[in-house]
Specification:
heterodimer, A: 270 residues, mainly alpha, ABC transporter involved in vitamin B12 uptake, BtuC, 13 helices, B: alpha/beta, Rossmann fold, six-stranded mixed beta sheet, three-stranded antiparallel beta sheet, 9 helices, 9 strands
């Protein structure tokens, strides 16, 4: 029906594919990030991504080729900051993210003026999804799925108790960095469709919804992935049917789902 | 040869030495309590023994074929873990991580070992329960089962009874003594509960930014270090 009609447009089909892949990655990575209290990193990364994208566009460089390395670098930096006991981690992340946002806005307004472009970056547009996005998100998704299936025991151990994992010979820092880098790529790929201000909700909502209902790490991870995919499809269909912005529609679907999960959790007595 | 030999160990944070001149040995079958006031360097020493913190001087030598990653560690619980969505079995199974090597998944043998250790703690019937729904004492026993999954020889415990009620505290001490005596697992425990240390341990290491005492419990009862810790009376 409506979904088939949507898929008959090539650009929409491509956007759906990229969105589904990114949603899956975001849900899996988000589970670990939320449980490790790193939710703010996702938000910080999207702002850095906005700044980098604005600068790249202003200078006429390929957007992905500039943004991905910059955001990956920022991810490693933000991880370091939030683990360091000397600096106030949350404050430093807020500084970096608002700083990057301000830089982006300045660059955009000095070059092309505050026009449609900025609005697209901030709140997303499915028209910006390119062929390169599709290829990259397929590669990213393969990497994230491989990480979560092949290293599942290690991911659990590092997420639950980093000290214990390190003491028994696991290189926790390596897995943390890997998570941060993959999150960075996820944020950049999802950012242009979902919007810089909205992408972090893909990381945070699905795991939180899953945690309302499920109580083991495996079930939370699987449910989070399922919730994320379902909410994305639902949001896109609503966006198509009611002509609402796609990013905001997906977030709205996630909010409704969170409410339902919270209600279900209450009813189940959890 | 001793399980663990420390020679003139010292630790520093950012150039400031917090612990110096620590020399002691841990023999197989020992039950060693590390006592001292808050901030005396007890937890730092445990981190050093585990290789989580590099000593600024001295050396830690492992003997008797003990490898560093074969140590069973029971860390102090963090707030993050108390509301972590994980089943009891998932937590205990993660103790087998050091035996994975190049494998990606746990084997049947790993699962059996995790169940065996849960049974040792009398927690097998709670296997499917959620970790965050357990009481403090039960959570601690789950973490002890996890530590036992990681080792056959040496347990390192950092304040294992912190935050437990008196009944759970007594149970925890009895369990540890049982593991020490019946299974021959060596126990090294950080504690600020001196009276319990005197009752259960075989040796005492008393720290206060340096080594104030190391020896048997009988010698410790007569020492100046104990008198000072009890308030100088």
């Amino acid at each position: 029906m409506i979904l088939l009609e949507m898929l008959s447009y090539p650009f929409l089909a491509r956007a759906m594919l990229v969105g589904l892949l990114v949603s899956l990655c975001a849900a899996l990575l988000g589970t670990s990030l939320v449980l490790k209290r790193f939710s703010m990193i996702g938000d910080g990364l999207s702002h850095v991504g906005f700044g980098a994208l604005a600068v790249a566009t202003a200078l006429g460089w390929a957007p992905l080729a500039v943004t991905i390395p910059v955001v990956v670098l920022a991810a490693v930096l933000l991880l370091r900051i939030s683990q360091s006991s000397r600096i106030r981690g949350d404050a430093a992340i807020a500084l970096i993210s608002s700083g990057a946002l301000a830089l982006g806005v300045l660059v955009v307004s000095l070059t092309s003026g505050m026009n449609m472009n900025v609005s697209n970056y901030m709140f997303g547009s499915i028209l910006t999804v390119s062929r390169a996005d599709a290829v990259l998100s397929a590669a990213l998704c393969a990497a994230v799925l491989a990480l979560f299936t092949l290293f599942y025991p290690r991911i659990f151990a590092v997420t639950f108790d980093e000290t214990f994992a390190t003491a028994t010979g696991t290189r926790a820092q390596l897995y943390n960095t890997l998570l941060a880098v993959l999150t960075a790529v996820t944020v950049v790929l999802g950012m242009r469709m979902m919007g810089a201000l909205l992408i972090s909700s893909l990381l945070i909502f699905p795991p939180l919804s899953a945690m309302r209902v499920f109580r083991s790490f495996r079930s939370v991870t699987l449910c989070s992935a399922a919730v994320s995919l379902a909410c994305f499809v639902l949001g896109m269909v609503c966006s198509y049917a009611f002509e609402t912005p796609s990013g905001a529609s997906v977030v709205a679907a996630n909010i409704v789902c969170f409410g339902l999960c919270a209600l279900a959790g209450k009813l189940l007595g959890r | 040869m001793a399980l663990m030999t420390c020679r003139d160990l010292s630790f520093a944070y950012g150039g400031e030495t917090v612990l110096r001149g620590v020399s002691f040995t841990v023999e197989a079958g020992d039950y060693l309590c590390v006592v001292g006031e808050n901030g005396s360097g007890k937890s730092t020493l445990i981190k050093g023994l585990l290789g989580l913190k590099e000593p600024s001087g001295g050396s830690v030598e492992l003997g008797d074929g003990l490898e560093r990653r074969e140590v069973g560690y029971l860390p102090q619980q963090t707030a993050l873990q108390r509301d972590f969505p994980a089943s009891v079995f998932e937590v205990v199974l993660s103790g087998r991580l050091n035996g994975l090597g190049r494998r990606c998944f746990y084997s049947q043998e790993d699962r059996r070992e995790a169940e065996r250790n849960l049974e040792r703690m009398g927690m097998l019937e709670l296997k499917r329960r959620c970790y965050q729904d357990l009481s403090g004492g039960q959570q601690q026993r789950v973490l002890l089962a996890r530590a036992l999954c990681a080792t056959k020889k040496l347990l390192l415990l950092d304040e294992p009874v912190a935050g437990l009620d008196p009944v759970a505290t007594g149970e925890m001490y009895n369990l540890l003594k049982l593991i020490n005596l019946c299974d021959g697992v060596t126990v090294v425990m950080v504690s600020h509960d001196v009276e319990a240390a005197l009752r259960y341990a075989t040796r005492i290491l008393h720290l206060g930014h340096e080594q104030l005492f190391f020896g048997s419990v009988a010698d410790y009862r007569r020492s100046d270090a104990l008198r000072r810790l009890r308030g100088g009376c």
